[in-house]
Amino acid sequence: MSLFDRAELAPADPILGLTEAFNADARPEKVNLGVGVYLGEDGKLPLMASVREAEERLVAQRKPKSYLGIDGMPAFREAVRGLIFGTEAQVLADARVATVQSLGGTGALKVGADLLHQLDPEATVLISDPSWENHRALFTRAGFKVEAYRYYDPEAKGIDFDGLLEDLRAAEPGTIVVLHACCHNPTGYDLSLEQWDQIVAVLDERGLVPFLDMAYQGFGFGIAEDGAVVAKFVASGQDFLLSTSYSKSFSLYGERIGSLSVVLGSADSAKRVLSQLKITIRTNYSNPPTLGAALVATVLTDPDLRASWETELGGMRSRIKELRQVLVDGLAARGIQDMGFIAGQLGMFSYSGLTKDQMVALRTEHAVYGLDSGRMCVAALNTGNLDRVAGAIASVRS
Ligand code: PLP
């Protein structure tokens, strides 16, 4: 009897499992709208020109590959703090923010979750209903009880804001509340700035612990617009955590680059929290990798590369909006008039409102792969596959 006989076969990850099924599908016309990846018009992952140029410069420098500090590359941390909080932000000048480089957005969430669990193992974590699949698993694995607050209203095709506020008001003080800063995954429905004001106030009043997850800055309305909620939390004076990811906005998925910031009431708290974050990192993977951080730092700090990156990101954002509209038009042309909401959703995803059976039919009959929840990645559409997807959706709807 081996110790490892105790290991049960875990179910396949729902999204990565779907990709495996997609890869095994022999139909040449297949379309993968399952994973959260932005693909270009050619159906391929783009290498952004700004990132390519930064990489060429780095290669030309031929620097040796030393270890980074536990909290990551200083130039990266400085650059992303400017991007997130604003270079002139008083909270940075006051040294009230503890920031570490992380292994993508997921790594930031996990390091943050581990810190929180160490400080309050009994706390409950609230995530949105629905949320990115990994939120529940990640916080559960970190040792928390995970529950959900109301978010999506399928009837209204929007946010159940009253339900959301009610659930937050009912939460025990100390409850950790995970919020999507922009481009909500999977629904594509974001809170308005006025609604955020109310959420920020309720979290503060109730003594809840906000954990903002910002994986898609720049994909909604713009870099500053999508990050506006961060300034609202800073202005409220409450402590909060913020994870960011540069997987999507720099198309650097495989480099695993992100950051975790904890905003606190004093420089002393920030110092203590940073020391604890460093222990978590040191005992898990010691220190983060170099390349992604160097690329992001180079692009953000060089004025030409920065301008080029902002233009490229803006191009991705507006192209997704166009794809949404073309899909809506294609559906309308096929007699499906009630899916116009897709055009107004934000970010890479669309909650299509299709049922599980319809999503299965899309897969089996039309080789169009989306999640059973009805989530589709509109950022994987292109002029070559849009017509087929619109036709397939119309067919499973009829
Ligand atoms: N948070 C949300 C809401 C996401 O959608 C994702 C990625 O899909 C992440 C975090 C994780 O980002 P990363 O791939 O950088 O780990």
From TrEMBL:
Residues 29-393 form the Aminotransferase class I/classII large domain. GO terms for cellular component: cytosol. Pfam families: Aminotran_1_2. GO terms for molecular function: identical protein binding; L-tyrosine-2-oxoglutarate transaminase activity; pyridoxal phosphate binding. The keyword Transcription regulation does not apply. Its cofactor is pyridoxal 5'-phosphate. Its EC number is 2.6.1.-. One of its GO terms (biological process) is L-phenylalanine biosynthetic process from chorismate via phenylpyruvate. InterPro entries: Aminotransferase_I/II_large, Asp_trans, NHTrfase_class1_PyrdxlP-BS, PyrdxlP-dep_Trfase, PyrdxlP-dep_Trfase_major, PyrdxlP-dep_Trfase_small. PROSITE patterns: AA_TRANSFER_CLASS_1. Keywords: Aminotransferase, Pyridoxal phosphate, Transferase. Homodimer. Belongs to the class-I pyridoxal-phosphate-dependent aminotransferase family. This is Aminotransferase.
